[in-house]
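Try this one yourself first.
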């Protein structure tokens, strides 16, 4: 995790720096916009900008966009002034943090962006096999494809492989191919030369060069445009890249790890993914089973999260009761580890007494997880189907599609990745639809369930 702090509030930002470094971040400082732009262009890069509200955030956002640089901004200020926070958000910041900063808040923001503080916790035999294979191939430079449903821990496993490789002391650079707009992704990966497009006022080093000597993670690679896949294939085959607008190839020394929550063989058949690129990436396939397919991991992870969030919230560490363990193992966990983590976090906050009981295992809307399963599901589904059928008559296809997308997004608590999986569309298609609806004045659910505003969940 690389944090760039922009501003001159030295005393307050020194505190933020210490907190960030305690949470494993590499911190760089820049006193003004010009110095900040030099940092993000020059190869050091940044996963997050923490910017003093005294800085012209709108100008910074416009300069980043003009140079095709994609990095989230969190604003900070010495007061808890609501107007300052609103102004920063309107200018393009994703969040606002009052100073002096609370350690838990800084840690949460860093985790939301980098998600690199998570341990690889497992016990089930199904996961043991995956980890054993990961250990066997970690020391090589072979490309690795990690597949599995959203929320199973693909990025965590990628960091595990990197940490046990000969490149462990070199950079681990992660690029979410689904979160970065298509027209920015090429420059983000390969960088660009001065004058290569309007706004390119200086050379920018891309993620391939930033990762030289280390590992480059291409997260959700199935969302990458086919045209860009051709350029990626050349980079992997020849170990050279071409900056946008460049005239000379640039050698790179990296290991590629890619992830996908989709069946890439089906994507190849559909013509949305290159078969030759799949062969290049899929030298080793680490397929992570869904959480419901590894029940022993449910309890192991639950105990880990119970301790983690008890410590984070300053409450006693309570064991899970026998009834609570039964409820947890019986649930389907469609959102996998991410959903389980959120559920245990709620249970830690809601538990009373010496144990975390079944009454504390709640859904996001506060219903008990076990009691919700006992409802007359078939009768309810039949009634709901009849109501939906009646509601469709007389409506346009576009209206029905819009309502389906928005209701699914609400059901997923704003999580774009989960909603796209349920709808059977790509995350990019979903984002395009949401932009259309927003332009029409439709209220759009904000990102949620682990997703930071403007940053897709892992």
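Now uncover the answer:
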């Amino acid at each position: 995790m690389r944090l760039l702090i922009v501003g001159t509030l030295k005393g307050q930002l020194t505190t933020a720096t210490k907190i960030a470094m305690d949470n494993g971040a590499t911190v760089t400082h820049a006193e003004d916009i010009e110095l900040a732009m030099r940092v993000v262009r020059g190869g050091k890069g940044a996963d997050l900008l923490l910017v003093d509200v005294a800085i012209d955030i709108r100008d910074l956002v416009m300069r980043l966009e003009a140079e095709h640089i994609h990095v989230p901004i969190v604003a900070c200020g010495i007061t808890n002034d609501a107007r300052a926070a609103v102004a920063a958000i309107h200018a393009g910041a994703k969040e606002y943090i009052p100073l002096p900063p609370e350690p838990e808040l800084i840690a949460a923001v860093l985790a939301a962006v980098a998600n690199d503080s998570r341990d690889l916790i497992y016990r089930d035999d199904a996961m043991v096999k995956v980890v054993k294979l990961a250990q066997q191939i970690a020391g090589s430079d072979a490309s690795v494809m990690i597949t599995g449903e959203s929320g199973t821990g693909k990025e965590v496993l990628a960091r595990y492989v990197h940490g046990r490789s000969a490149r462990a002391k070199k950079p681990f650079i992660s690029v979410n191919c689904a979160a970065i707009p298509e027209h920015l992704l090429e420059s983000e990966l390969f960088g660009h030369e001065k004058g290569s497009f309007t706004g390119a006022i200086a050379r920018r080093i891309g993620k391939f060069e930033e990762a030289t000597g280390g590992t480059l993670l291409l997260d959700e690679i199935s969302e990458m445009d086919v045209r860009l896949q051709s350029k990626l294939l050349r980079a992997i085959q020849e170990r050279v890249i071409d900056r946008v607008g460049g005239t000379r190839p640039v050698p790179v020394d990296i290991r590629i790890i890619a992830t996908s929550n989709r069946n890439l063989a089906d994507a190849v058949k559909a013509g949305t993914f290159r078969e030759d690129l799949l062969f290049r990436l899929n030298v080793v396939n680490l397929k992570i089973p869904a959480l419901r397919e590894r029940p022993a991991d449910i309890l192991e992870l639950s105990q880990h999260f119970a301790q983690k969030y008890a410590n984070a919230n300053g409450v006693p560490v309570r064991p899970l009761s026998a009834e609570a363990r039964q409820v947890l193992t019986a649930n389907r966990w469609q959102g996998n580890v991410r959903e389980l983590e959120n559920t245990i976090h709620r249970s830690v906050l809601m538990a009373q007494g010496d144990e975390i009981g079944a009454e504390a295992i709640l859904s996001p809307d506060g219903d008990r997880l076990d009691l919700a399963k006992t409802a007359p599901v078939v009768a309810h589904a039949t009634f709901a189907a009849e109501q939906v059928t009646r509601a469709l008559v007389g409506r346009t296809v576009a209206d029905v599609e819009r309502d389906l997308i928005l209701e699914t997004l609400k059901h997923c608590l704003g999580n774009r990745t989960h909603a796209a999986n349920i709808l059977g569309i790509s995350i990019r298609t979903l984002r395009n639809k949401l932009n259309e609806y927003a332009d029409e004045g439709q209220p759009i659910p904000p990102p949620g369930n682990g997703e930071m505003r403007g940053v897709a969940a892992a």
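Discussion: The chain has a mean pLDDT of 84. The chain is about 45% helix and 10% strand.
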